[in-house]
Amino acid sequence: MSTAHIALNRFGFGLRRGDTFSGDPQRYLLDQMDAFDPTPRLIAERPDTSDKAGEILEMLRQLRLDRRTDASDASSAMADMQAMDEAQNAVPAEVRGSYLRAAQTLRRDAGLRTKVAAISSTPMAERLVHFWANHFSVSAAKPGTHYQVANHEFSAIRPHVFGNFSDMLRAAVLHPAMLLYLDQFRSVGPNSPFQQRRAQRRRNNDRPPQGLNENLAREVLELHTLGVDGGYSQADVTEFAHALTGWTINGLRQARRFSEPRPGGAAFVLFAHEPGNRSVLGRTYRDTGSRQAEAILSDLASHPFTARFVATKLARHFAGDIPPPALVSALEADFLRTGGDLASLTRTLIGAPEMWTPEPVKFRQPFEWFVSALRITGADNISNRRIAGALNEIGQVPWRAPSPAGYDDLEGSWAGPDALFRRVELAERIAHNVPADGILARADAAFPGALSDGTRTWLSRAESGAQALGLLLVSPEMMRR
Amino acid sequence: MTMDLNRRSLIAGSLALGAAGVALPSMAFAQSAGQKNLMFVLLRGASDGMAMLAPTGDPDFEALRPSAFEDYNAAQRADSFFAIHPAFTQVGSAYASGEALFVHAAATAYRERSHFDGQNLIETGAAQPYATRDGWLNRLIGMMGDGDGARHPSALAIAPTLPLALRGDAPASSYAPSSLPEASDAFMDRVGLMYQDDPQLGGLWSRALETQAMAGDDGLRNLRDAAAAGELAASLMRDTDGARIAMMELGGWDTHANQRGAYNRVAGQLDALLGAYRSGMGAAWQDTLVVVATEFGRTARYNGTNGTDHGTASAALMMGGAVRGGRVIADWPGLREADLYENRDLRPTIALENVLAGSIADHMRLDPQLAMAMLFPGREGTPTSGILRA
What we know:
The complex is a heterodimer.
Chain A: H1 3-10, H2 25-35, H3 41-44, H4 55-67, H5 74-86, H6 93-119, H7 123-135, H8 149-157, H9 165-173, H10 176-181, H11 193-201, H12 215-224, H13 234-244, E1 247-249, E2 259-261, E3 266-269, E4 278-280, E5 283-285, H14 290-301, H15 304-319, H16 325-338, H17 342-351, H18 366-377, H19 384-394, H20 417-431, H21 439-446, H22 453-460, H23 465-473, H24 476-479
Antiparallel strand pairs in A: 1-3, 2-3, 4-5
Helix pairs in contact in A: 1-2, 2-17, 4-5, 4-6, 6-18, 6-19, 8-9, 9-14, 12-13, 15-16, 16-17, 20-23, 22-23
Chain B: H1 7-18, E1 37-43, H2 49-52, E2 53-54, H3 61-64, E3 83-84, H4 89-96, E4 100-107, H5 115-124, H6 136-144, E5 155-158, E6 173-175, H7 185-194, H8 199-215, H9 226-235, E7 245-250, H10 259-281, E8 288-294, E9 314-319, E10 327-329, E11 350-351, H11 352-364, H12 368-375
Parallel strand pairs in B: 1-7, 1-8, 4-10, 4-11, 5-6, 5-7
Antiparallel strand pairs in B: 2-3, 4-9, 8-9
């Protein structure tokens, strides 16, 4: 396996049809850091949906009021959504129309993300975007997030890929998509004026009003910063959750009068914020309103456990399920030395000898495989509907990870018999819809110095160009990098 | 669904002849006695246990759900206290022949009301949502591997993707009919040849072909036809080389409004699935345990739209030739205002984890205490014994 092959495939999404690779592989990767466009044309032309943060939730709230059910939590909103999927006529036409528009937006955004990667001239940077978006995973399975999950990646992740981890952390955690996904939007300080007024109003109700929700605080500590063995306690979670109260989304009717809008569709409601100083990991944070949580996030971003956790995940993604300890240590040291400079971290990754081992280190996940297939076939004008359908069939739709931990980054989760079979089915279908000339030459260009004799033999013996292209798409060289 | 003469089994055969490097796909033989099968069916969306098995003998039941009461007038009685929802005709017949039982007023350790978190807990087996990253069924596979972990029972989700309950370190795969156009025979042949010298892809490919062959030309594009899905599941399990542990999912239980119709429809699907699975398993049914459970129950009383909202305790269903059925296991909490959990939900009196650990350990010949500790860590409960035939 040549260094050119590694630069193209282990770091990126492979070569695009018609492109050629020449020059120094490390330089090729380093240049992408300068050339990366956080807002490429496809994203820049996309209508802004950040003002729609509360739209679906308000719609569902109205729907529940109309039906006078006592459902008060967001999970019953999910039920309403599912009901809309199933019983088309059970809900008012305007509500259904609004839901369909949201679903359409989501599908368009997933298609857009795929195409941006498929035509990118900085594929390593796009891989990093997806890595970080998965690190800060949000899911459209949560009601109300349809308009926000793409915004999260486009505006909270992309601009910071070569910036500072601290900035990415703040942007990703305090974004409407995350605030919705992990229930922060309805977390209220138990001693806040808002909660006290609510309690008075509901004195005769048999259920106490919902108060503090610790989901976001717990997941930030466990999944975004320190890691599960990161030395924090339940008390730290609760304290951090108190500090986060008041952070919510813009456009919620209940909070409208007190809401201070923040860029991107988030909002801070001081009336819902728990008053008082907070103590997290032994450090005291004065009550500075919205800045209290930001100060905690800032300290978490540069914590040694965070450096270790982030280094391990990055190494696992690029260098193999069992990350080489020397690579983890090098990344960790870089993160600590620079205070989380992600450009420096990426340079260290590129320069690490462990990244350039000749044998394949990783089974490609479905999304990565699909983007690589679009690049090598040049099939990047495929419709959003077909992109969404294909990703659904091969099991990895953007912003649909099954848990806040994101999609698994381990081979065992992806290298299954049925999963392979589906790739084979899809590969033949793709191959029949694109030009299929000069497949051997394309294979040589796409896998420089890495095309095995076996694959070469079967490509050359294929009955047709389309069959050869299909085989190329499911060849061992495409499945592993 | 017949095994012979379907397209993919023929392909599997021809491939084996053509390529020495690919293992011969094992032929289907009748299961030998003693091979234990486990099917876990997760009802997603919080299924209403009091609709499945109505406590018609409880004097407070009718007042909570006046409009539903008549549904049970002519329904099959489980005993003098409980009636089985009329949609469960095939489950009811299994109950009558002593091959099904209900566990009522059961719940996991979860006491909030989010589907999201509740499903996470019933799949991970942890005491808190998101406390554990792997699933309890996966840990069960791990427990059943031999000492060096080489030979695990084969485990399969009949689902588009591997559900959390089956995710983890132990091997498990998923299968679902795909809406992708089938690849051509010629192409699949060539793929097999290309993979013959690649141990990983070659192994996955031959397993894929075996599963495809077992599933036959299912003619399905997805799993929406419940009876066909049940039959498909049986076809993937009943033979010696089939899956020993399987999981299926069924949604649509979140009946916030007009529950009678909605529940009747989805209960009919579950009944069709289980009925088709039972008959599809044939002789292997004798060594089969089916566990049907949900993340939590629903409110005891109908809401303003004749539905129910998210609650706490629900009912579980155990079926199979291995089950000592024809009975209800319950410590009935009552339905008076003060009996209800937080004045609204059926109060849990049985820990679902105890039932799962106890029955599965007995079925798979595992130490129940060890099973409890491995599958549902952090619980104090005693695994329930006596669910299966001695």
